[in-house]
Amino acid sequence: MSELVRFLHEKVWLLGDTRWYARVDRVRGELVEVERLGFAQLDARARAVGAWLAERTPPGARVLLMYPAGLEFLTVFLGCLYSGRTAVPAPLPDTDRRALQRAERVIRDAGVGLVLTDTAHRPRLASWLSGADTNGTDTTRPDTTGPDTTGPDTTDPDTTGPVSAPQAECVATDSTELPDPDTWPPLAQDLSATAYVQYTSGSTSEPRGVVITHRDLLHNLLAIRETILPPDVRDELRDDPSQAGAGWLPHYHDMGLVGILLSPLASCGNLVFCSPVSFIAHPLLWLQMISRYRAFYTFAPDFGYDWLLRRLKGGRPTEPVPVPDPELNLELELELSCLRFALSGAEPVRADVLDAVARRLAPIGFRQDIWAPSYGLAEATLMVTGTPCGSGATVRRFDRDALEAGRAVPAPDGAELVGCGRPTGTDVHIVDPGTSRPLDDGHVGEIWVRGDSVTNGYLGNPQATAEHFGARTADGDGPFLRTGDLGFRQDGELYVTGRAKDLIIVNGRNIHPQDIERVSETADTATGPCAAFALPDGSGAERIVLVQEIRPRHLEGRTPATLADTIRKRLAHELRLAAHVVVVGPMSVPRTTSGKVQRARTRDALRSSRLATLHSDLPTPA
Prior knowledge:
GMP Synthetase, Chain A, domain 3; seven-stranded mixed β-sheet; 3 domains; alpha/beta
């Protein structure tokens, strides 16, 4: 077996079924445990799947895993690791044409011949894969007023015409007779062997398959454990069978897979989780999991914490001093003092969200020092920088004009930025993207990374692999992974300022779109997610455009035009910017499978008149 599999087996041998995974859901308003497996049970099931795969497929075969949230996915994923088959996690394309198109691209790109799922979803998938259903089904997206973390990727603007069905066999593993796990040992594999292919969410480009080896995964799991968990905390997790984590992220997302599902095997902890669909519908389920199971830690992106905050009774706090909320204290009897580590990552971490969540939940035991901002990306397996348990977030203010000029100058009334911690077993450089010259601390540039967690590149795409993974500095140092993210280092911590491709350059100013979006999203109770970008006007000059989703029921008699005027005034006052505001309904802004707003896709949809606008300030058609 590989060193990775040996490492996992040592945990199973040491802990047996004293550690467990449990999935919960909300049933008639109550938290209910739906399924549970101990580590030894999980391992036995995974060995049975591995034996079955070894009989049915050639070594190295790529297998698409399309499961709902649950433990069947995890057992099959581990079965792929044990058997030397390459897992390709993917979201279930249940009803949306765009999701079918994304799945079709992934199957063809990865050369998949076998799709694994559960009994409930096999008929629909098998019908599509056999070509019997090539027209898709309902192309409408479910309404909701929340972020789309589980729904289809919207990377393909063409949603008309039939969906081409690739030819691949589809098997439901939960109803298939599997071999005896005790008659088959995991296969011997080198650390350089491919463990799985993680398709990126495609926030600024088409999804690409990141090839992740056994070495990459093992190194990142150990780096996460040893960097963010001090030795005494690691000992506590190993010795106390009651310690648990809690989460809801999708298993096909890098943070959901590595951070939520696989980390407990490395840190010797339990895990309680729910599906992303359940979280979006019932955000308080997240807090109930933490409280009921006395969870030690949790992982989520910034928008997850913000969504929870918006859905709590009363919304964002306005009181300078926390006031106990009857819904939290009495009806649900929540208590969060057990929580000692709340990681926020996968997208820019906002100081206002951290502060608002901590103040809102302080009456039930949430503390500021449990915040643990991080930075990572699929191309580095997951985590690149992290904040140790108990350290809390580092929040500093920097002069806005200096940031636009590429320098981080502290200023008491400047823009708040959150430090994303220190490198977790990686070498992080800040480099001028134009000259490839390394930059000193306090200078904004592109984030370049190297280390054993950095992956081998993109599947079947040598040009993109060379472009992103083969970077060298002007003095020849390298190779590095060019992340495409902008940031700077200060006192050892990494601060992320945005994406290089999303940077808006207007009138000589370098403006990060998330700064515009933050102001707009918090301008009014009716404003939700939005996307900011630049568009040329009739003369070729760049102008700033903001596409803003609204929640119509929160307008309270106001018109979309009135709301747009409020947003423009806020942007002019806080950022000294003039922007054109386009108001759209809920779920109109394209998102990736992990919920990230796709600015480029939004811009393209606006220019081709594919957005149903409720109001637009643009003087001419985009």
